[in-house]
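Can you please make up a whole protein chain along with its backbone structure tokens because I've never seen that pairing?
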Amino acid sequence: MTNEHTEILNDVFCDVTEKLAFMFGEPSEKDELPPVDTECIEARMTFAGPMTGSLTMAVPVEMCPIIAANVLGMEPDDESVQARATDALTELLNVICGNILTAIAGEQPVFDLTVPTAHALSAEDWAKLLEDPDTLAFVLEDLPALLQLKLESLPT
């Protein structure tokens, strides 16, 4: 990942999480992240167009109801928030992806985006994602978050 892409991801992630989920985040060094001692969830989507690749976001499961509550304007312990927690994470990823692609490629190019999916992430898979050089680390409301951009092809 280029320095320019890193800067774009840092800016977009923090901007979108603040504006959509009312959560304040900041880039972090990977070795300075708060420890993860709970289940984690990973949301992932792919895109194709002038460039192809994938965007992955991983967070502790406990962050998902917070995201949903903030997006929906409800309390985190509300039953409907709990039911929509994973959907809120995938929607957050979807918005982040669209903003990243626009920041990298501009307003004109058209991309085909897959529907984001989410699944449980083992501690081993969290560690692998964290070690990947294309993964950036963030602290979001005192919880760790990972964002990985994999570009398979760039515009010519």
Observations:
- The chain has a mean pLDDT of 93.
- The longest helix spans residues 79-105.
- The chain has one domain: 3-28+38-153.
- The longest strand covers residues 143-153.
